[in-house]
Write a structure and sequence with these properties.
It contains 14 helices and ten strands. It is of the alpha/beta class and about 350 residues long. It folds into two domains: about 100 residues, Arc Repressor Mutant, subunit A (Orthogonal Bundle); about 190 residues, Vaccinia Virus protein VP39 (Rossmann fold, 3-Layer(aba) Sandwich), CATH 3.40.50.150. The strands form two sheets. A seven-stranded mixed beta sheet has the order 6-5-4-7-8-10-9, sandwiched between helices. Strand 7, helix 12 and strand 8 form a beta-alpha-beta unit. The longest helix has 28 residues. The chain is globular, with a radius of gyration of 21 Å.
Protein backbone atom coordinates (compact mmCIF):
# COMPACT_ATOMS: atom_id res chain seq x y z
CA UNK A 1 0.00 0.00 0.00
CA UNK A 2 1.37 3.43 -0.96
CA UNK A 3 1.87 6.27 1.52
CA UNK A 4 -1.05 8.13 -0.10
CA UNK A 5 -3.36 5.12 0.24
CA UNK A 6 -2.40 4.56 3.88
CA UNK A 7 -3.00 8.12 5.06
CA UNK A 8 -6.23 8.85 6.93
CA UNK A 9 -8.17 12.10 7.20
CA UNK A 10 -10.98 13.52 9.36
CA UNK A 11 -14.54 13.08 8.14
CA UNK A 12 -15.43 16.77 7.42
CA UNK A 13 -12.77 17.47 4.75
CA UNK A 14 -13.46 14.14 3.05
CA UNK A 15 -17.19 14.86 2.96
CA UNK A 16 -16.53 18.30 1.49
CA UNK A 17 -14.39 16.82 -1.27
CA UNK A 18 -16.88 14.07 -2.07
CA UNK A 19 -19.83 16.51 -2.20
CA UNK A 20 -17.94 18.79 -4.59
CA UNK A 21 -16.93 15.94 -6.89
CA UNK A 22 -20.34 14.25 -6.78
CA UNK A 23 -21.99 16.18 -9.61
CA UNK A 24 -21.84 15.43 -13.34
CA UNK A 25 -20.48 18.71 -14.67
CA UNK A 26 -17.93 19.05 -11.88
CA UNK A 27 -16.76 15.49 -12.45
CA UNK A 28 -16.34 16.24 -16.15
CA UNK A 29 -14.36 19.37 -15.25
CA UNK A 30 -12.05 17.29 -13.05
CA UNK A 31 -11.54 14.82 -15.90
CA UNK A 32 -10.62 17.69 -18.24
CA UNK A 33 -8.23 19.30 -15.75
CA UNK A 34 -6.48 15.96 -15.43
CA UNK A 35 -5.34 16.68 -19.02
CA UNK A 36 -3.75 20.02 -18.05
CA UNK A 37 -4.53 23.59 -17.00
CA UNK A 38 -7.58 25.32 -18.53
CA UNK A 39 -9.38 28.62 -18.10
CA UNK A 40 -13.09 29.40 -17.86
CA UNK A 41 -13.35 30.22 -21.56
CA UNK A 42 -11.83 26.86 -22.49
CA UNK A 43 -14.23 24.97 -20.23
CA UNK A 44 -17.20 26.96 -21.51
CA UNK A 45 -16.35 26.04 -25.10
CA UNK A 46 -15.74 22.39 -24.28
CA UNK A 47 -18.76 21.76 -22.08
CA UNK A 48 -21.20 24.01 -23.95
CA UNK A 49 -22.42 25.68 -20.78
CA UNK A 50 -22.65 29.34 -19.80
CA UNK A 51 -19.68 31.10 -18.24
CA UNK A 52 -21.55 31.90 -14.97
CA UNK A 53 -22.48 28.22 -14.60
CA UNK A 54 -18.93 27.02 -15.21
CA UNK A 55 -17.59 29.67 -12.83
CA UNK A 56 -19.95 28.49 -10.07
CA UNK A 57 -18.81 24.88 -10.51
CA UNK A 58 -15.17 25.95 -10.40
CA UNK A 59 -15.78 28.00 -7.27
CA UNK A 60 -17.16 24.93 -5.49
CA UNK A 61 -14.23 22.80 -6.65
CA UNK A 62 -11.72 25.40 -5.47
CA UNK A 63 -13.45 25.79 -2.10
CA UNK A 64 -13.37 22.00 -1.61
CA UNK A 65 -9.64 21.98 -2.36
CA UNK A 66 -9.98 19.80 -5.46
CA UNK A 67 -8.85 22.52 -7.85
CA UNK A 68 -6.32 25.35 -7.61
CA UNK A 69 -6.77 28.75 -9.24
CA UNK A 70 -3.92 30.78 -10.74
CA UNK A 71 -4.77 34.39 -11.60
CA UNK A 72 -3.06 35.93 -14.66
CA UNK A 73 -4.35 39.41 -15.48
CA UNK A 74 -8.03 39.19 -16.36
CA UNK A 75 -7.74 35.43 -16.91
CA UNK A 76 -7.50 32.62 -14.39
CA UNK A 77 -6.16 29.13 -15.05
CA UNK A 78 -7.34 26.09 -13.10
CA UNK A 79 -5.53 22.86 -12.33
CA UNK A 80 -6.03 19.79 -10.17
CA UNK A 81 -4.58 20.20 -6.70
CA UNK A 82 -1.58 18.29 -5.42
CA UNK A 83 -2.75 18.60 -1.80
CA UNK A 84 -4.34 15.83 0.24
CA UNK A 85 -6.95 14.60 0.88
CA UNK A 86 -8.47 16.17 -2.23
CA UNK A 87 -5.76 14.98 -4.61
CA UNK A 88 -6.00 11.36 -3.53
CA UNK A 89 -9.80 11.36 -3.74
CA UNK A 90 -9.77 13.01 -7.16
CA UNK A 91 -7.24 10.55 -8.55
CA UNK A 92 -9.12 7.57 -7.13
CA UNK A 93 -12.37 8.74 -8.72
CA UNK A 94 -10.83 9.67 -12.08
CA UNK A 95 -9.05 6.32 -12.38
CA UNK A 96 -12.41 4.59 -12.18
CA UNK A 97 -14.12 6.60 -14.88
CA UNK A 98 -14.97 4.79 -18.09
CA UNK A 99 -12.92 6.54 -20.79
CA UNK A 100 -15.35 5.17 -23.33
CA UNK A 101 -18.25 7.13 -21.83
CA UNK A 102 -19.88 9.21 -24.58
CA UNK A 103 -19.80 12.54 -22.72
CA UNK A 104 -16.23 12.13 -21.52
CA UNK A 105 -15.06 11.10 -24.98
CA UNK A 106 -16.77 14.11 -26.52
CA UNK A 107 -15.19 16.38 -23.90
CA UNK A 108 -11.75 15.09 -24.90
CA UNK A 109 -12.53 15.73 -28.56
CA UNK A 110 -13.61 19.29 -27.80
CA UNK A 111 -10.50 19.79 -25.65
CA UNK A 112 -8.35 18.76 -28.62
CA UNK A 113 -10.26 21.20 -30.83
CA UNK A 114 -9.81 24.08 -28.38
CA UNK A 115 -6.08 23.43 -28.09
CA UNK A 116 -5.76 23.07 -31.85
CA UNK A 117 -7.48 26.43 -32.31
CA UNK A 118 -5.03 28.07 -29.89
CA UNK A 119 -2.10 26.48 -31.69
CA UNK A 120 -3.40 27.67 -35.07
CA UNK A 121 -3.74 31.23 -33.81
CA UNK A 122 -0.18 31.16 -32.50
CA UNK A 123 1.11 29.65 -35.77
CA UNK A 124 -0.67 32.34 -37.80
CA UNK A 125 0.85 34.99 -35.57
CA UNK A 126 4.37 33.59 -35.98
CA UNK A 127 3.93 33.35 -39.73
CA UNK A 128 2.72 36.95 -39.95
CA UNK A 129 5.49 38.33 -37.75
CA UNK A 130 8.44 36.11 -38.67
CA UNK A 131 10.28 38.89 -40.51
CA UNK A 132 10.02 41.48 -37.71
CA UNK A 133 10.27 39.19 -34.70
CA UNK A 134 13.26 41.02 -33.27
CA UNK A 135 11.28 44.29 -33.26
CA UNK A 136 8.49 42.64 -31.27
CA UNK A 137 11.04 41.69 -28.63
CA UNK A 138 11.53 45.40 -28.00
CA UNK A 139 8.53 45.07 -25.65
CA UNK A 140 10.85 43.90 -22.89
CA UNK A 141 14.18 44.83 -21.33
CA UNK A 142 16.98 45.35 -23.84
CA UNK A 143 17.91 42.13 -25.64
CA UNK A 144 21.61 42.81 -25.09
CA UNK A 145 21.05 42.65 -21.33
CA UNK A 146 19.06 39.43 -21.65
CA UNK A 147 21.71 37.82 -23.83
CA UNK A 148 24.48 38.87 -21.44
CA UNK A 149 22.56 37.23 -18.58
CA UNK A 150 22.10 34.08 -20.66
CA UNK A 151 25.85 33.90 -21.29
CA UNK A 152 26.56 34.25 -17.58
CA UNK A 153 24.02 31.55 -16.68
CA UNK A 154 25.39 29.10 -19.26
CA UNK A 155 29.05 29.89 -18.58
CA UNK A 156 32.00 29.66 -20.92
CA UNK A 157 32.67 25.92 -20.82
CA UNK A 158 32.26 24.00 -24.10
CA UNK A 159 28.81 22.55 -24.79
CA UNK A 160 28.70 19.11 -26.34
CA UNK A 161 25.14 19.27 -27.66
CA UNK A 162 22.61 22.09 -27.37
CA UNK A 163 18.88 22.03 -28.11
CA UNK A 164 16.97 25.28 -28.66
CA UNK A 165 13.22 24.71 -28.30
CA UNK A 166 11.09 27.23 -30.19
CA UNK A 167 14.19 28.50 -31.95
CA UNK A 168 12.33 31.26 -33.80
CA UNK A 169 14.86 33.34 -35.72
CA UNK A 170 17.73 31.16 -34.48
CA UNK A 171 19.14 33.86 -32.22
CA UNK A 172 19.97 31.54 -29.32
CA UNK A 173 21.95 29.30 -31.68
CA UNK A 174 23.76 32.41 -32.94
CA UNK A 175 24.53 33.34 -29.34
CA UNK A 176 25.59 29.96 -27.91
CA UNK A 177 26.26 27.88 -31.02
CA UNK A 178 29.93 28.88 -31.30
CA UNK A 179 30.71 27.14 -28.00
CA UNK A 180 28.65 24.03 -28.87
CA UNK A 181 29.94 21.06 -30.82
CA UNK A 182 26.40 20.40 -32.01
CA UNK A 183 23.35 22.67 -32.10
CA UNK A 184 19.77 21.73 -32.92
CA UNK A 185 16.87 24.19 -33.19
CA UNK A 186 13.24 23.05 -33.19
CA UNK A 187 10.25 25.20 -34.15
CA UNK A 188 6.70 24.46 -35.28
CA UNK A 189 6.67 27.37 -37.75
CA UNK A 190 8.14 26.81 -41.21
CA UNK A 191 8.27 30.60 -41.70
CA UNK A 192 10.33 30.99 -38.55
CA UNK A 193 12.65 28.18 -39.62
CA UNK A 194 13.18 29.88 -42.99
CA UNK A 195 14.23 33.08 -41.22
CA UNK A 196 16.47 31.08 -38.85
CA UNK A 197 18.19 29.29 -41.74
CA UNK A 198 18.93 32.58 -43.46
CA UNK A 199 20.24 34.13 -40.25
CA UNK A 200 22.45 31.18 -39.34
CA UNK A 201 23.84 30.91 -42.87
CA UNK A 202 24.70 34.62 -42.78
CA UNK A 203 26.55 34.06 -39.48
CA UNK A 204 28.41 31.07 -40.89
CA UNK A 205 26.78 28.56 -38.54
CA UNK A 206 26.16 26.10 -41.33
CA UNK A 207 26.48 23.00 -39.13
CA UNK A 208 23.47 23.90 -36.98
CA UNK A 209 20.47 21.64 -37.54
CA UNK A 210 16.94 23.03 -37.77
CA UNK A 211 13.88 20.82 -37.52
CA UNK A 212 10.16 21.41 -37.63
CA UNK A 213 8.60 19.85 -34.56
CA UNK A 214 6.14 20.01 -31.71
CA UNK A 215 7.29 21.39 -28.37
CA UNK A 216 5.29 18.60 -26.68
CA UNK A 217 6.84 15.84 -28.82
CA UNK A 218 10.35 16.93 -29.72
CA UNK A 219 11.86 15.23 -32.79
CA UNK A 220 15.05 14.34 -30.91
CA UNK A 221 16.21 11.23 -29.06
CA UNK A 222 16.01 11.25 -25.25
CA UNK A 223 19.03 12.07 -23.06
CA UNK A 224 20.91 13.63 -25.97
CA UNK A 225 21.71 17.20 -24.90
CA UNK A 226 23.77 18.69 -22.10
CA UNK A 227 22.05 22.07 -22.57
CA UNK A 228 18.41 22.70 -23.50
CA UNK A 229 17.08 26.24 -23.88
CA UNK A 230 13.45 27.40 -23.87
CA UNK A 231 13.67 31.09 -24.75
CA UNK A 232 10.45 33.16 -24.74
CA UNK A 233 8.26 30.17 -25.61
CA UNK A 234 6.28 29.13 -22.52
CA UNK A 235 3.93 32.13 -22.55
CA UNK A 236 2.55 31.00 -25.92
CA UNK A 237 1.64 27.52 -24.68
CA UNK A 238 -1.48 25.90 -23.27
CA UNK A 239 0.62 23.50 -21.19
CA UNK A 240 3.94 25.02 -20.09
CA UNK A 241 4.55 22.26 -17.54
CA UNK A 242 4.20 19.61 -20.23
CA UNK A 243 6.75 21.43 -22.41
CA UNK A 244 9.19 21.51 -19.48
CA UNK A 245 8.75 17.76 -18.96
CA UNK A 246 9.47 17.13 -22.63
CA UNK A 247 12.56 19.34 -22.44
CA UNK A 248 13.76 17.39 -19.40
CA UNK A 249 13.37 14.17 -21.39
CA UNK A 250 15.96 15.47 -23.86
CA UNK A 251 18.56 16.19 -21.16
CA UNK A 252 21.52 13.90 -20.64
CA UNK A 253 22.51 13.08 -17.02
CA UNK A 254 23.83 16.22 -15.39
CA UNK A 255 22.49 18.35 -18.25
CA UNK A 256 21.04 21.83 -17.77
CA UNK A 257 17.76 23.45 -18.75
CA UNK A 258 17.68 27.22 -19.23
CA UNK A 259 14.28 28.95 -19.36
CA UNK A 260 13.87 32.59 -20.34
CA UNK A 261 10.40 34.13 -20.15
CA UNK A 262 8.43 36.99 -18.63
CA UNK A 263 7.76 37.72 -14.98
CA UNK A 264 4.04 38.16 -14.13
CA UNK A 265 2.53 41.27 -15.73
CA UNK A 266 -0.87 42.73 -16.67
CA UNK A 267 -0.44 43.74 -20.33
CA UNK A 268 -3.68 42.22 -21.58
CA UNK A 269 -3.19 43.44 -25.17
CA UNK A 270 -0.49 40.82 -25.59
CA UNK A 271 -3.17 38.11 -25.62
CA UNK A 272 -5.07 39.53 -28.59
CA UNK A 273 -2.30 41.30 -30.49
CA UNK A 274 0.62 38.96 -29.89
CA UNK A 275 -0.97 35.54 -29.22
CA UNK A 276 0.30 35.33 -25.64
CA UNK A 277 -1.50 32.59 -23.72
CA UNK A 278 0.01 33.38 -20.32
CA UNK A 279 0.91 36.74 -18.79
CA UNK A 280 4.24 35.73 -17.32
CA UNK A 281 5.22 33.24 -14.64
CA UNK A 282 5.96 33.48 -10.93
CA UNK A 283 9.28 31.98 -9.78
CA UNK A 284 7.73 29.33 -7.54
CA UNK A 285 5.37 28.26 -10.33
CA UNK A 286 8.22 27.49 -12.75
CA UNK A 287 10.38 25.95 -10.03
CA UNK A 288 7.53 23.62 -9.10
CA UNK A 289 7.21 22.53 -12.74
CA UNK A 290 10.96 21.93 -12.88
CA UNK A 291 10.87 19.71 -9.81
CA UNK A 292 7.88 17.80 -11.17
CA UNK A 293 9.97 17.15 -14.29
CA UNK A 294 12.70 15.62 -12.13
CA UNK A 295 15.05 18.61 -12.30
CA UNK A 296 16.75 20.64 -9.58
CA UNK A 297 16.34 24.44 -9.80
CA UNK A 298 19.79 26.04 -9.59
CA UNK A 299 19.16 29.74 -9.98
CA UNK A 300 16.55 32.36 -10.84
CA UNK A 301 16.79 36.08 -11.37
CA UNK A 302 14.81 38.90 -12.98
CA UNK A 303 15.93 41.52 -15.46
CA UNK A 304 13.85 44.69 -15.21
CA UNK A 305 14.12 47.63 -17.59
CA UNK A 306 16.33 50.45 -16.26
CA UNK A 307 14.29 52.92 -14.25
CA UNK A 308 11.40 50.46 -14.01
CA UNK A 309 9.76 51.60 -17.27
CA UNK A 310 6.06 50.58 -16.94
CA UNK A 311 5.73 49.68 -20.63
CA UNK A 312 8.70 47.31 -20.54
CA UNK A 313 8.29 43.72 -19.39
CA UNK A 314 10.59 42.13 -16.83
CA UNK A 315 12.40 39.05 -18.11
CA UNK A 316 12.96 36.08 -15.80
CA UNK A 317 15.72 33.50 -16.18
CA UNK A 318 15.68 30.06 -14.58
CA UNK A 319 18.45 27.48 -14.66
CA UNK A 320 17.88 23.86 -13.59
CA UNK A 321 19.97 20.72 -13.66
CA UNK A 322 19.31 17.04 -14.22
CA UNK A 323 20.41 15.48 -10.89
CA UNK A 324 21.53 12.18 -12.39
CA UNK A 325 25.26 11.49 -12.08
CA UNK A 326 27.36 12.10 -15.17
CA UNK A 327 29.33 9.04 -16.26
CA UNK A 328 32.40 8.85 -18.45
CA UNK A 329 30.57 6.87 -21.12
CA UNK A 330 31.78 8.09 -24.54
CA UNK A 331 29.25 9.76 -26.80
CA UNK A 332 28.59 9.41 -30.50
CA UNK A 333 28.45 12.42 -32.79
CA UNK A 334 24.68 12.46 -32.24
CA UNK A 335 25.12 12.99 -28.52
CA UNK A 336 23.96 9.50 -27.54
CA UNK A 337 25.88 7.16 -25.28
CA UNK A 338 27.86 4.42 -26.97
CA UNK A 339 26.49 0.98 -26.05
Amino acid sequence: MSERESRQFPLPPLLSVLRAAGEETRLRILALLAQGELNVSDLTDILGQSQPRISRHLKLLVEAGLVERQREGSWAFFRLTDSEPASGVAQAVLQRLDRGDHDLARDRERLAEVRSSSAEKAAAYFSQHADNWENIRALHVEETAVEAAIRVAVGSKPIHAMLDIGTGTGRIIELLGPQATRSVGVDASLDMLSVARANLAHKGLLSAQLRQGDVYALPVPPQSFDLVVIHQVLHFLDEPARAIREAARALSPGGRLLIVDFAPHELEFLRDQHAHRRLGFAPDQVENWLRQAGLEPVQHHDLAAPGGEPDKLTVSIWLARDPRIITDIPLTDTGRAVA
